[in-house]
Fold this protein.
Amino acid sequence: MARRILVVEDNMDLADLLVMHLHDAGYAVRKAGGGRAALKLLEDESFDLVVLDLMLPDLDGLDICRRLRGRPDYLPILMLTAKSTEFDRVLGLEVGADDYLTKPFDVVQVTASVSRALERRQSRARMVSFLEGISRVLGQNRDPEIVLEELDASPLAITDLVGRARAQGLENVQAHTAELRHYVPARMYDSVVAIGLLMFFACDDARGLLARLREAVKPGGRIALNVLVEGTTWLEPFGSQPYCLFAPDALSGEVAGWKVLVSRHDDFPAPNATLKRFHTLVAQRPVAPSSRTSSR
């Protein structure tokens, strides 16, 4: 089923252009010419993302953004504006916009931003599913020494994940923003999980981060990785930004000598008859042999 997008724009020529371009990209699109009409559509129908103009004739985009962020469900928001000051950009992101484009823009930029936002939404859904699994484990063992630490470049994602964790009674969950490209773990962990992360960096940066994450796993601990691999033809989310498609079995080489618990390749259909090809790997680091003294 095509993912559904709501375009909120009072310039009907621009709105029609966006609708046409997004429809050609494989999305189901509705449009609204004002804030109140948009809120009515959002109340009556389900959408996967909102493209939202900042300056509307009735309610402004910031007000709509705040209202949407007050809802329990997370809905990605791509904000459009004719204002180009840093203040406007930061304000839009602070009230909850996922991305921000300044007019005039190439409609190809919109499609790339939409794809990135939807991919982040899927990654967040996978992390929420992971949290639910952790909640079942920690529900049986409320040992305060067990801590789940979540890192994300987006403050909005951190707020969302912490809220979901607290709603499930998981006081053991800690979450922090971090510049992930050059992130260096400050300690070692029993488990390290990187889902839908490494593909958003140039390959040298991705391999460097993977090496640092691998070294942060304690002896006997586990690492869980999920990356896009060669054969993927769905490249819209990256636009002109760097990205990395790993060789099909590159992850296995990164954990040479570890016990591989899961190694799976999966193909998923993507918009415009393209393909997402993933490699998922879970491996356990060997336990360091204990030193022994021999006596004669």
Notes: Residues 4-116 form a domain with the Rossmann fold fold (CATH 3.40.50.2300). The two ends are 73 Å apart (CA to CA). The helical segments are 12-24, 35-44, 61-69, 86-94, 107-140, 155-167, 203-215, 250-254. The longest strand covers residues 217-228.
